[in-house]
Request: fold
Amino acid sequence: MATRKPKNPITALWMQVPAYLRNRYFVTLVLFLVLMVFVDRHDVGTQFRLHATVDRLEDDLQRYDRLTAEAEAEKLDMEQNRERFARENYYMQQDDEDVFIIVDN
Reply:
């Protein structure tokens, strides 16, 4: 029995591939996976970037919540002790007193 030589070099290469890899369902599945993982609009890289963005935004939200709580506490303290707040933060004084500012190094 003589072996037939294919006319097309691509066909020759295709025939050297094992039969289970030439199966049309296997080829379709591989192409679909490549499309979904690398080419699609919602590919794996995009999902990782979106997840990192969500984590960063959640961290920012926690930080801003903490800053808001600190600002509200400072506001409450300022409303309760206006005179002390003005003296400490704006170096205000009454007419008959001297203020000495001590800076810790």
In short: DSSP finds five helices and no strands in the chain. Residues 1 and 64 are 81 Å apart (CA to CA). The chain has a mean pLDDT of 86.
